[in-house]
Amino acid sequence: MRIALDATYSVDPRPSGIAVYSQELMTGLAERYATDEFVFAYRWKQFRRAARPARNNVQRRLLLPPVSVFRADVFHALNQRLDTRLARHTISTFHDLFVMTAEYSSPEFRARFTEQAKRAASNSDRIVTVSEFTAQQVSTLLGFEPGRIRVIPHGVRVCRGPEGQTRERMILFVGALQVRKNIVRLVEAFERLPVEWRLVLAGSNNGYGSDAILKRIEASPARERIDVLGYVDGPKLDRLYARAALFAFPSLDEGFGIPVLEAMAHGTPVVSSRRPSILEVAEGAALLVNPEDVDQIENALSSVIANPDLSKDLSVKGLTRARQFSWERAVKATYDLYREILD
């Protein structure tokens, strides 16, 4: 087969979410299916920064819709953007649609995103979603036929540190500072916890609504125990997961929830939201709460802090759950979809 992929989102100096997905999929496909041909297509800005392919079965091309038309069996847009059909068969991946359903962005961005999502759906023969929840949204909000949707979850690499490693009295949160991540309620819950504990926030601090979040943190009576780190890269983030005694992720809305899976893959006990996509990833392996209830968040955090047996149980269950999600599995399922659409 000859497969073209929109590799634009893989070029990111601060990779997270969609960038990680793009990188893992591109690398995994080219390595595992060495007899197939792959075209990594980039928009101009990213094309100039993208590394030249290291494998003989990969070409690098410029993506200039609607001018570009690829001599390929399948074109796969790795984010929910497909402005025109660029090959005989087209697939797009939808990670989430929360922009369309709640006040998590500006009206202008919401309108632009909605139009882009509708256009991508209309140009797709198949849509990949990363959760059953997102699949339902794609069907309901965009009118896309459920039979043409395939759910292929994200993956993770299990990388637990040495046995017996000492965990610090640290509660870790990973994600951009934005309204959707529910950080203000997390801070309110943290303020009620024992004073020997720290809250570490790792993620870019310029998300939607970040100014108000940062002001609330500055006004917190526990300010000296809250670390706002900004974006943290891969190796440093791994060390944070390994050091933290507890991972808190009370997000209001997710398409998947990669940080939850990453925390479990490091053996870090997880407290997160009872929201549909999080349930798919973490139910039975984490303490799940109503993220709009500060008391529930506090009680869950306090329970793990006060109960070493519960903490150990969540760690073991989280690792077991994380092993069910691998990038190798995601790569194979994606390739199988390419075969399916050609057959």
Kindly describe this structure.
- This protein is of the alpha/beta class.
- The protein is built from 13 helices and 13 strands.
- It has a 7-stranded parallel beta sheet with strand order 3-2-1-4-5-6-7, with helices on both faces. It has a 6-stranded parallel beta sheet with strand order 10-9-8-11-12-13, sandwiched between helices.
- Helix 6 crosses helix 11.
- The protein is globular.
- The chain starts with a strand and ends with a helix.
Mean pLDDT across the residues is 92
Radius of gyration: 21 Å
Number of strands: 13
Strand order across the largest sheet:
3-2-1-4-5-6-7
Number of helices: 13
Low-confidence stretches: none
- Overall helicity: 25-40%
Main sheet properties: 7 strands, parallel
The outline comes out as: globular
- Helix-and-strand structural type: alpha/beta
Order of helices and strands: EHEHEEEHHEHEEHEHEHEHEHEHHH
Separation of termini?
12 Å
Strand content: 15-25%
Question: How do you describe this structure in short?
Answer:
The protein is α/β, with parallel strands linked by helices and 343 residues long. The protein is built from 13 helices and 13 strands. The mean pLDDT is 92.
Write the layout of secondary structure elements.
Elements: E1 2-6, H1 17-32, E2 37-42, H2 44-47, E3 58-62, E4 74-77, E5 89-94, H3 98-101, H4 107-122, E6 126-129, H5 132-142, E7 149-151, E8 168-174, H6 183-190, E9 198-202, H7 210-218, E10 226-230, H8 234-243, E11 244-249, H9 258-265, E12 270-273, H10 276-282, E13 287-289, H11 294-306, H12 308-322, H13 327-342
Parallel strand pairs: 1-2, 1-4, 2-3, 4-5, 5-6, 6-7, 8-9, 8-11, 9-10, 11-12, 12-13
